[in-house]
Design a protein that fits this description.
four-stranded antiparallel beta sheet, globular, Rossmann fold, 12 strands, 10 helices, D-amino Acid Aminotransferase, Chain A, domain 1, Dna Ligase, domain 1
């Protein structure tokens, strides 16, 4: 009898739409490979749904809060259902950007200066010199990210994460190249450079076709490629991640840059859409999308 896989998708986070696309792609691939698949658009009764369904394994295609931050992972541990991606602690730690960066820094992985500040304090006295970045400290996919540059009008009326949360993360803006590395089973795949055709690599640039050029592998010296991939594998390891993750970096290797690759964050539930970076890097390494998702299902577990 074929293994029964429940694919969790959708949910109620700000990344619901992307999760639905990821989940649909995963479900199709698994069916093509002979798995019995149940697609679940997650609601708050997901515990009851899974208890009744009794799948052999869960493929967690949720993105954002509640699906990526340890909440669903904890539920799956209680239900004793093996699941894809990282466990409770790694998921919750990675989603807390401030905490994750403290751990990275302690391990010698370069990070940008940052702080947490409240809405009132943010506008009463800017916490660092411009340019700086303001973002939620517990969202993914560049949701709510705002770059504040010299000369910008910066006020509470401007759209930004401060309109939805009491505290935000402020981080020094890092100029340079946008780079990303997928890690599978503890091993880095390759480095991709992302070149948005306009603006910066925001939510739209990530998920709308034709808005960003992907250079794979990135045009970097071999020692820099190795350095960035080693940092990604180290970040995966020190947070206790499992399965597949993706780490994002900025590198200013221009004439006036410092040449240091700074890690921005680690994603424990990378996108699995047609435009997503993990499947693209897997293809570059000779692995089909079907092979990738099958590996992730077979790697699923509880308790680690």
């Amino acid at each position: 009898m074929s293994k029964h896989v429940a694919v969790l998708m959708g949910g109620w986070s700000l990344e619901r739409a992307v999760s639905l696309v990821s989940g649909a792609a995963v479900a199709t691939a698994l069916r093509d490979e002979g798995y019995r698949v149940s697609e679940i658009d997650v609601t708050r009764d997901i515990g009851q749904v899974l208890s009744k369904l009794k799948p052999d394994v869960v493929f967690n295609a949720l993105h954002g809060r509640w699906g990526e931050d340890g909440c669903v992972q904890g539920l799956l541990e209680i239900l004793d259902i093996p699941y894809s991606h990282s466990g409770v602690t790694a998921s919750s730690t990675a989603m807390d950007k401030i905490l994750a960066k403290k751990i990275f820094k302690s391990a010698g992985i370069p990070v940008a200066p940052d702080c947490i500040t409240g809405r009132d304090a943010l506008f009463a006295h800017e916490p660092m010199a411009r340019p700086f970045v303001v973002k939620p400290y517990n969202e993914g996919s560049s949701v709510g990210v705002v770059i504040v540059r010299p000369g910008d009008n910066f006020s509470p009326d401007r759209p930004g994460p401060w309109q939805d949360v009491d505290q935000v993360m402020v981080e020094r803006y890092l100029p340079g190249r946008e780079l990303t590395v997928s890690v599978m089973d503890g091993k880095a795949m390759t480095v991709t450079e992302l070149k948005p055709r306009s603006g910066f690599y925001d939510y739209e640039a990530k998920y709308e076709d034709g808005m960003t050029d992907h250079i794979i592998p990135a045009d970097l010296a071999p020692d820099m490629l190795d350095r960035i991939m080693n940092y990604a594998a180290q970040a995966h390891r020190i947070l206790g991640c499992r399965g597949v993750t993706r780490s994002d970096f900025r590198l200013d290797d221009g004439p006036d840059g410092d040449g240091i690759p700074y890690i921005l964050e680690i994603n424990t539930q990378p996108g699995m859409t047609p435009l997503s970076l993990v499947p693209e890097q897997a293809r570059h390494m000779g692995m089909t999308f079907e092979q990738l998702v099958c590996w992730m299902v077979e790697d699923a577990s509880c308790g680690r």
